[in-house]
Amino acid sequence: MSQTIVTPAEVERAIRNVPDFPKPGIQFKDITPVLADARLFNGCIDLLINSLKPGDVDAVVGIDARGFIFAAAAAVKLKAGFVPVRKKGKLPFQTHEQDYALEYGTATVAMHIDALKPGARVLLVDDLLATGGTAAAAVSLVEKLGAKILEVSFLIELGFLNGRDRLKGHKIQSLVTY
Ligand code: AMP
Fold it and tell me: What is the dihedral of CA 54, 2, 152, 164, to 10 degrees?
């Protein structure tokens, strides 16, 4: 696949802010306009993986659900496998599960017990870093299998929520920060 030069500023201009979705007070960052633009979609994947080349990682792990879109595209470009971290109850085979705190209550993510080999080199990808709870839970699942996270990449980071603090010790990259 050829390299498409896209700047983070162009990606930022295409992200649509939807106020009060899915509930009052949330500023939802809608990435569908980025996906719908062939140049921006292709280019933002290149930006997400800019410090890596084919052969550097064995698997790209994507987080349910929008993370899958970016992680799968990154996996193809990096000639790596794709592994989903899903919400509890969706994966068909045996899983490891990890709970994490939400604003109200808890949620659980899961990964197949054989999804990654011990020592596998992993790029973890999601669309957006908010409080970091989801990504930290995914990190725990990857590490439970003995795999090694080289980098955690997000299209968007809500910097004011300090999600990075939950991912200490890992290399974190985000393209657009609010
Ligand atoms: P958190 O666990 O708080 O870091 O939340 C991250 C997850 O929630 C990601 O998988 C995002 O897709 C989603 N998310 C949280 N806040 C937003 C937002 N303002 N706009 C879009 N998605 C969000």
Answer: 150
Place 1 in a pLDDT band, splitting at 50, 70 and 90: low
Determine the residue type at 78.
L
Give distance in angstroms: CA of 2 to centre of ligand 1.
30
Please answer whether residues 151 and 51 qualify as being in contact, where contact means their C-beta atoms are separated by less than 8 angstroms.
yes
Which tens digit of pLDDT belongs to each residue from 62-106? 999 999 999 999 999 999 999 999 999 999 999 999 999 988 899
Task: Tell me the three-class secondary structure of the chain, residue by residue.
Answer: CCCCCCCHHHHHHHCEEEECCCCCCCEEEECHHHHHCHHHHHHHHHHHCCCCCCCCCCEEEEECCHHHHHHHHHHHHHCCEEEEEEECCCCCCCEEEEEEECCCCEEEEEEECCCCCCCCEEEEEEEEECCCHHHHHHHHHHHHCCCEEEEEEEEEECHHHCHHHHHCCCCEEEEEEC
Separation between Cα atoms, residue 78 and residue 58, nearest integer Å: 9
Counting every residue written for the chain, the total comes to: 178
**Residue among 32, 128, 153, 172 to mutate when testing ligand 1 (max atoms within 8 A of CB):** 128
